[in-house]
Design goal:
The chain has 322 residues and is an alpha/beta fold. The chain has 14 helices and five strands. It has three domains: 161 residues, Glutaredoxin (3-Layer(aba) Sandwich); 44 residues; 85 residues, Serine Threonine Protein Phosphatase 5, Tetratricopeptide repeat (Alpha Horseshoe). A five-stranded mixed β-sheet has the order 1-3-2-4-5.
């Protein structure tokens, strides 16, 4: 089935679905085939909302529409009305408990489907019933109007095509959910550190992370947390204007460059911070060079050693030192 280019103005008259008899026969045939293959089992509530792409369109929408009306939400990440409508449709899919299936299609990633359905603006909501596509509404419509449209859709799907929806096993998700992990040996200390950070108690956060590392020196979360807390503690009493002035006037003063690099990183200027310390290591020697190197390694921990900017800066430092 090729989706038709349909008008998106307002809510359509669902009673005007064409080829109802033929579609009903196809739906019945598909249900028989699904039963023969062992289909039709109850689904968990989480299966009532699915993400669909071009590759899975026939399987996830066309074939499923032979057993349940499929409502399609065309959306995009940048679309603010989509962020209002999407959660509402998901909530209604759960509330209607299998009377319809909600398929979400990201138009940015599925341009072909957007063109086939003739989408002119988003959010746009279509339905597919027994292989027949029809538009429902465009934009973030009021909830009462959406409910009325869904009720009409479900009524037509049942009366004209014999689609009564799919069974939902309300306990399936709970049964399949993994058990909550047991509390780790350092969870209380890590939680205390986060609480201290949130309250501005940087010294308390530093101490809590150090308590974890005293027992487990390689604990990744504690290492990252400690590096971040110590950075915040270093910059909290700085005069940014004076620090910038000192760094500009004293390019070979390692203390000035280290302070400016800390400010760079807190301000989100990661590559500036790294570059500043690499340059400080290049123009100095002895203890000053080592101080720049050690601070750079500390900042690597703050950003994360897997970050590509860390990889590049590590290579630049190696070239300076060796």
């Amino acid at each position: 089935m090729q989706p038709r280019n349909m008008s998106m103005s307002g809510v359509v008259d669902l009673a005007a679905v064409k080829a109802a008899g033929e579609a009903k026969a196809k739906a019945e045939q598909a249900r028989v085939e699904a039963a023969r293959q062992g289909g039709g089992a109850a689904v968990p509530p989480s299966a009532l909302v699915i993400d669909v792409d071009e590759a899975g369109f026939e399987r996830d929408i066309l074939q499923r529409s032979a057993e349940v009306p499929v409502v399609i939400d065309f959306w995009a990440e940048w679309c603010e009305p989509c962020k209002q409508l999407g959660p509402l449709l998901e909530r209604l899919a759960a509330e209607y408990n299998g009377r319809f299936l909600l398929a979400k299609i990201d138009v940015d990633a599925n341009q072909m489907l957007m063109q086939q359905f003739g989408i002119q603006g988003i959010p746009a909501v279509f339905a597919v019933v027994a292989g027949q596509a029809l538009p429902l509404f465009q934009g973030a419509a009021p909830e009462a109007q959406i409910r009325e449209t869904l009720d009409q859709l479900i009524q037509v799907a049942e009366e004209r095509f014999g689609l009564t929806g799919i069974a939902v096993d309300a306990e399936a998700d709970a049964a399949q959910a993994p058990a909550a992990p047991a509390a780790g040996p350092y969870d209380a200390l890590l939680e205390a550190a986060v609480t201290a950070l949130d309250s501005g108690d940087l010294a308390g956060a530093v101490q809590a992370y150090k308590n974890v590392l005293a027992d487990d020196p390689g604990h990744p979360e504690a290492k990252l947390g400690l590096a971040q807390a110590e950075l915040l503690r270093r910059v909290q009493d700085m005069d940014p204007q004076q620090v910038r002035k000192d760094a500009a006037e004293k390019p070979t003063d390692v203390t000035a460059q280290i302070a400016a690099a800390d400010l760079d990183l807190v301000g989100g200027h990661v590559e500036d911070a790294f570059g500043r310390l690499v340059e400080a290591a290049r123009v100095t020697s002895g203890e000053d060079r080592n101080a720049a190197r050690l601070r750079l390694l500390e900042l690597f921990e703050v950003v994360g050693t897997d970050d590509p900017r860390v990889t590049r800066a590590r290579g630049a430092l190696a070239r300076v030192l060796y």
